[in-house]
């Protein structure tokens, strides 16, 4: 891999006077230049790299080959649902009929886009067993904040101002307590039992007239279904609180059960996990928020309203006086909605029912095939994901981090590690419903090989990865000392 382009910065490839191609002369002459205010003009030309086109293409193609993505390999990152992003989604989202729209266009000319928004929110409402969704929030955590603002608005509308306490299980995703804090609410943690579910006895004394609500993930971040959910929902409701469902990863539920039927009042869904739209470095997200009947008025503005007419439907964009206000400019990330809607249409009513069962089957298959080599603290049937507590044989000192690094040598992305915090050597694996038995089998084989290597050649595993473009990095330095512009390099 040692060639001219490899591992170099584009600035290091720069040669004075070299150009990609020359542009035709501006037909408007100097019109633009003459009409730009002097204070907006550059004093001198920017210090951009001077490179030919072939160098640029090779540089970026080589860089992209250094990356790992769901299109290059298996990506079992627990709680992240790194599922495949079908290419037809991209085609639909890139259709010029949608990409050329402007949010301030006349309403008569955007009826199709509004129909997509409305139909998607209706479909989500049906899948979730709730009354209405807003698609405006831009991410899961943003959805949580929006949902908690709905919760707060509900209590304030009833003059229940003292309700500021939000109960969050100790197994919760970190964004749950963070969102509650950003919303100005007080976080109270409820403990888990040894089987990984919420301890109802620990919950009871926390319930009083200061409780705004409780946030839950079900199946929780350990992949365990909270079987006491009906009792928990009743306790919280009896205390006057609302139930919030973190549906970032709704996969295991699809086709099996609905949060609304389990007693939840408010929820968010990550389109960029559950509904196959890209995430992480792959693109923007979307965190729709749904509510049960009676809470719709508090959802954010603006909202899409359908009017039924004799010859079809007509859509307008409206507002509710009781709304919590705006959480986004316009109606959210429309291109993400296009992808999720396409995914739902390609699955259809029949196939969407297989998402939950297949996600569950895949996770249990991997878990059962590896539990003799890796420590499984919570036995029994999991849902879409599960947690190992490191290697079963820890005598050679090989840690979860070492196993994760060694996986990279074999071309697999690592699982989520050291989360949830309940186990020291946590390794959280989520295969998703998309993966074939062959892929799962090769992952299982590699995980078993690493367990053997950890016993036979521990130093080799501890110094992994060996085959990647870069070796072990200083994660802390990488996070704290980021170089994100070329200027810093140029001094
Ligand atoms: C990913 C995730 C979130 C947060 O979603 P973002 O889009 O990253 O903000 C919240 N809860 C759970 C359980 C998650 O897995």
Got a strand count? 12
Distance between the termini: 29 Å
The helix-strand sequence is HHHHHEHEHEHEHEEEEEHHEHEEHHHH
What is Rg?
26 Å
For the largest beta-sheet, the strand count, sense and barrel status come to: 7 strands, mixed
Q: What is the structural class?
A: alpha/beta
Average per-residue pLDDT, rounded, comes to: 92
What is the count of distinct domains?
Answer: 3
Number of helices, where a helix is a run of at least 4 consecutive DSSP H or I residues: 16
- Strand adjacency order, main sheet: 1-7-6-5-4-2-3
List the helices and strands and how they pair.
Elements: H1 31-35, H2 53-65, H3 87-93, H4 96-99, H5 111-128, E1 132-134, H6 140-157, E2 165-169, H7 175-182, E3 186-190, H8 200-203, E4 211-216, H9 229-238, E5 242-247, E6 266-269, E7 289-291, E8 303-309, E9 312-318, H10 334-351, H11 355-370, E10 386-389, H12 400-409, E11 416-417, E12 426-429, H13 437-456, H14 458-462, H15 475-480, H16 486-490
Parallel strand pairs: 2-3, 2-4, 4-5, 5-6
Antiparallel strand pairs: 1-7, 6-7, 8-9, 10-12, 11-12
The structure holds pyridoxal-5'-phosphate (PLP).
């Amino acid at each position: 891999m040692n060639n001219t382009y490899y591992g170099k910065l584009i600035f290091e490839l720069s040669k004075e006077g070299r150009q990609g191609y020359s542009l035709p002369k501006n037909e408007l002459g100097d019109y633009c230049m003459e009409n730009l205010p002097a204070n907006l003009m550059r004093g001198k030309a920017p210090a951009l790299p001077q490179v030919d086109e072939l160098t640029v293409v090779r540089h970026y193609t080589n860089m992209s080959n250094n990356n790992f993505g769901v299109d290059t390999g298996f990506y079992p990152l627990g709680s992240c649902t790194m599922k495949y992003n079908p290419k037809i989604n991209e085609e639909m989202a890139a259709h010029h009929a949608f990409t050329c729209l402007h949010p301030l266009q006349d309403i008569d000319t955007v009826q199709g886009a509004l129909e997509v928004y409305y139909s998607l929110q209706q479909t989500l409402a049906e899948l979730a067993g709730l009354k209405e969704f807003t698609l405006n929030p831009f991410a899961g955590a943003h959805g949580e904040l929006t949902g908690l603002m709905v919760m707060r608005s509900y209590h304030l509308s009833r003059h229940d101002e003292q309700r500021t306490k939000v109960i969050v299980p100790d197994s919760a995703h970190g964004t749950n307590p963070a969102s509650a804090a950003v919303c100005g609410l007080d976080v109270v943690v409820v403990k888990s039992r040894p089987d990984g579910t919420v301890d109802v006895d620990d919950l009871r004394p926390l319930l009083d007239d200061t409780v705004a609500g409780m946030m839950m993930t079900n199946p929780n971040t350990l992949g365990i279904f909270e079987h006491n959910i009906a009792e928990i929902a009743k306790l919280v409701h009896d205390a006057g609180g609302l139930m919030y469902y973190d549906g970032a990863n709704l996969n295991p539920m699809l086709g099996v059960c609905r949060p609304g039927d389990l007693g939840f009042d408010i929820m968010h869904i990550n389109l960029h996990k559950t509904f196959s739209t890209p995430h992480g470095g792959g693109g923007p997200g979307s965190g729709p928020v749904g509510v049960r009947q009676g809470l719709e008025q508090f959802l954010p503005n603006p909202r899409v309203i359908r009017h039924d007419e004799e010859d079809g439907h007509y859509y307008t964009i409206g507002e509710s006086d009781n709304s919590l206000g705006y959480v986004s400019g316009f109606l959210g990330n429309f291109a993400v909605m296009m992808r999720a809607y396409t995914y739902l249409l390609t699955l259809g009513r029949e196939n969407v029912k297989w998402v939950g069962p297949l996600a569950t089957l895949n996770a249990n298959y991997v878990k059962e095939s590896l539990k003799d080599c890796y420590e499984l603290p919570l036995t029994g049937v999991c849902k879409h994901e599960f947690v190992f507590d490191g290697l079963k044989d820890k005598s050679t000192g090989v840690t979860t981090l070492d196993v994760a690094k060694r996986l990279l040598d074999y071309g697999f992305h690592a699982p989520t590690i050291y989360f949830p915090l309940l186990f020291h050597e946590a390794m959280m694996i989520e295969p998703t419903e998309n993966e074939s038995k062959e892929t799962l089998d090769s992952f299982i084989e590699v995980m078993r090989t690493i367990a053997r290597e950890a016993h036979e050649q521990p130093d080799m595993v501890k110094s992994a990865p060996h085959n990647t473009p870069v070796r072990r990095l200083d994660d802390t330095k990488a996070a704290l000392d980021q170089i994100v512009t070329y200027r810093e390099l140029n001094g």
